[in-house]
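Technical note accompanying the year-one report. For the benefit of new consortium partners, we illustrate the data format agreed upon in the data management plan: each record pairs a sequence with a structure-token string. No post-processing was applied to the example shown here.
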Amino acid sequence: MKAYRAYIKSRIIMFIEAIIVFGLVFMLTKESNQVYVLTVALNNNLEKNMDRKIIQKTQNELYIEKDYNPIDTFIGELTGYAGDCPLCSGYLACPPRTNVLEKGIYYDDATYGHIRIAASSKNYPCGTILRFNVNKLSEEPIIAIVLDRGVSGNNIDLLTESEEYAAQYVGRVRNLEFEILRKGWTK
């Protein structure tokens, strides 16, 4: 009987110790997570590997958001044109004066990537980046760069594969909101 009481007593003590250890581990884990979050925010830990990755990711996200936030908007009219039109030479009016009959309807911009080419009036300098939504052309917003002239006011002429495509798919879209993401070649 004495051995049985000693056994029960040891099991009760072990149970209490387990609860204390579990509580300490839980509290230490919670505190270490709080310390880790603070360390990451302050970027003062010794390794800094994780912190650099987190900071770089955050900076990249802010950079992308900044690049895609409009700096201005305007209401205009969208039409389409092609480099093979009767009065077109195939060369764009703005530098780098690309021949679109050879290079196509897209431009590779250092910031915005592979984007469409558009013509505008001199209201919008060469290199201006525009974003607009036309569901019949694309489910996603279209991003285009002004590299050509030949229209007036707030009209934008989107470069297409052919005049037939421009007439059939673009047509004339009135009262369209255009967002300016970059004005000219610099922000």
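Partners are asked to follow this layout when depositing records. The chain has a mean pLDDT of 83.
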